[in-house]
Amino acid sequence: MREVHVLLKNRGKIDPKNAKEYAENGGFEALKKALSMSSAEIIEEVKKSGLRGRGGAGFPTYRKMEFTAGAADPTRYIVCNADEGEPGTNKDRILLSADPCSIFEGMAIAGLAVGAHVGYIYLRAEYTYLFPVMQEALLHAESLGYLGKNMMGSGYDFEIKFRSGAGAYVCGEETALFESIEGKRGEPRFRPPFPSIHGLFGKPTMLNNVETLANLAPIIKNGAEWYRTLGTEGSPGTKLFTVCGNVVRRGVFEFPMGVNLKDIIYEVCGGIQDGHKLLGVQTGGTSGAIINADQIDMNLDIDTVSASGGRLGCGTILVIDDRNCIVDIVLNNLDFFRGESCGKCTPCREGGQQLYNLVNRIATGHGSVQDLEKIDELAETMRLTALCGLGHSTAVPVQTSIQNFRGAYLKHIDRDHCPVCSEGGGIYR
Amino acid sequence: MIHLIIDGQNVEVEEGTTILEAAKKVCIHIPTLCHHEDLSIKAVCRICVVEVEGQRLLPTACSTPVSEGMVVHTASPKVLKARRNILELIFARHPQNCLVCPKSGKCDLQKVAQDLGMHLDIRYDTELRQEKEDWSSPAIMRNPQKCILCGRCLEVCNEIQGINVLSKENRGFQTLVAPAYGEKLADTNCINCGQCVQVCPTGALTVHYHTYKLLKQKEMGKKLIIQVAPSVRITLAEALGEKPGVVSTGRLVSALKRLGFYKVFDSDFTADLTIMEEGTELLHRLKNGGLLPMITSCCPAWVKYCETYAPQYTKHLSTAKSPQQMFGAMIKTWFAEREGIDPSQICSVSVMPCTAKKFECTRPEMNASGYQDVDISITVQELANLIRSGGIEFSELPDTPFDDPFGEGSGAGLIFGATGGVMEAAIRSVYALTTGREMERLEYTEVRGFKGIKEAAVNLDGLEVKVAVAHGMKNAKTLLELLQSGKADYHFIEIMACPGGCIGGGGNPPKTWKIMEERRKAIYAAEEKLPIRLSHKNPAIKRIYETYLGEPCGEKSHKLLHTHYYNRQDLIR
Fold first, then answer.
1. What is the dihedral of CA A307, A311, A314, A317, to 10 degrees?
2. pTM higher than 0.80 for the full model?
């Protein structure tokens, strides 16, 4: 199976700091074209392309553009969400380190589409070592006249600024990210009002994931029709997949949407390490569904994965082999969530801890079947009532793993033998 | 107009209305915890979730605006189940000792729990915060274990008062609202205004109660002498369950007598005394090129703010003590002498609408009598508790007048309770004393009302005196910035820390602006009925100057009725 490189076409082929090399490889052609188009034309092209957000929710990008472009306030912002905090995900880091100019170009095109003159890149605190590379690339692109004031002689200014937080996972949530840029504690805001009306500094703001913005230049340059030749009807284009866990070959791969999960694991990544057996797969990062080995013959596009109860999310694939225990993995997930909850709303702050306590009771051999019911009710409350996506999705790995690995939970409840958890002596822990 | 259906009821409301407000229109009450009608929308407790047809999740009624054709269910099984589950989560982190909680019976969390019928055991592990109660501040008691992180106090302390003592620490389950660096409240720049106490829905922030200390003094056989602040007669009945704005002066004195107070005096008297001293000081400053503007000093929260944040302005503060402290000094000197009581046997008590008064009476320099001038300051809420525990049927009490010789106060003294009152009282007397005639209309409405900063100019026969009034520390801060930038040339400024003045003080029953309006009307209506409405016309005041003090700002006054200030800037370094 061959990868299809649209977003990664420059990876390892150009000097990321050198905007001239980027331009020589077809860079900034899309921006040049966009500068000759009207805002409505750009949005129409994006609409025809069918591009959907790559950060997790899969929201149609053109609609965000329409909302922001139609806002009453003339001061607007573009924000690039580079707070790639999802455990096991590295795709945005690859894009930003290997081809930063493609992100700048995407942001400038987005700026033209919604009438913004300032864009912020909010970089994950752990990625701040990328700042020098990005800074140099930006300065170079500006010195060559591609970006910044009066882009390519068009009279349109687009300034890009870099910001970083202090390392909270929740700052990847768009409104918490705004708060962080504004210098406040990183806590999500309630919605509505939505960011396209009341976003960064209270102004209409379009926030996109790094990968979404990277798609804009290829779409404008080659046209929506070309873009639709890639991927599926509902999810056109390519997707970056970060494969991690117990596979032979791990890394970031680019495939058209709709690629089969089983093929990725066994053909692209060389199967499971050391001849072990596949136990399950978690797609979409920590907040994604955990499916069992029988369910992996699945096409990876936004709608198919959603229909199966999980989500494609940012395209992370965690492969779990039989050296692991699912209950233990879920407990690990919950430990992450309870620590990363911002503490603002009750269901996530208190529920995250209680969900951990309940699963922990089962994992350590002290649980009961009633605990499974309690878990289910609590998970549902969190999903329905939490303030932001973090609280909503804490429940996903728990609920799906109980569905798909009920046996494993019952084994722990019955104090039956779990080869993984009993390792090291004692009844579990 | 937007049309929607809430629980089967057709509702028509204006665009931008929230589901919560729309539901109220058709007599549907949606429970809330973090919501407060005078504060911004928080949407963090999630108790007010409702079901909206066509929406996957349960949105919060407090924050979600209505839309055309919306169909809302506010009490469907799905909604009730979620609400109960959320409450259970809160309970698992909240002490279950409601019976010994000062907020019991007045607690929003308790109310919601009762409304939702939380009668079953909590199914989760209960784990309280490790942080213990903080009794360090004489004004406010903080119990972090009872905090439900609604964020109301944060808004009041940081946005409305601009003090920034409380903020959130840590995240997730460990989130805590506390003073920075784990400091005790008493060691911070907290100005003791108690506005956080006013909005706290649970017992996490309460008045630091001194009722036990008071009973102890009684037990020891001390002579209890109490002074009653102007606002107390406005808000006490409300604290005991009557409607806002009921003035209960006579009943209040009866109740205090029954509680065993030897003498019950009226702080309106020392409010008049304050006007005499402060007014004279102002005239001195105006005539002799003294430092202007002069700023009032009767609000102890404002005084601490000034000492902490703007020590360069303490020279502008009137050196006159607050009415509470003037009273304290007079009781243990002149009154003790006259009655032949050993001042050490007097327990001087004040009942105030204020939490900061508790701090003020412990200031070390407040000992003009050789003893701590005011021993105990209690709030309206504490007095209400004393009356209840004393078994007194407050609503049925007959009226009793205040005791002599400090039982007489003028209307000018009474209006000290509302923002602008001190200014109005001062203008009335200063005008009369300089021009030799009374103002045509005593009601000086320019400085009345709840506008943040009020300005006026009074013509004293050719001498134009520019005045300004600010209430709420954010407004006061704005005013100070105006002064700092040289854009303002006022002669006299009144500052009260609490929004609305003392009737909005932290020791009162919880307020809203709607309630405040009733209190404000009540105080001015009561003032109009008083026979004497000018401080210098108060015969008791005349008598005290003739027989004891001599003249305003004279030698004796200076010793007893004036004070000095500190620089507390270190608190914010």
1. -100
2. yes
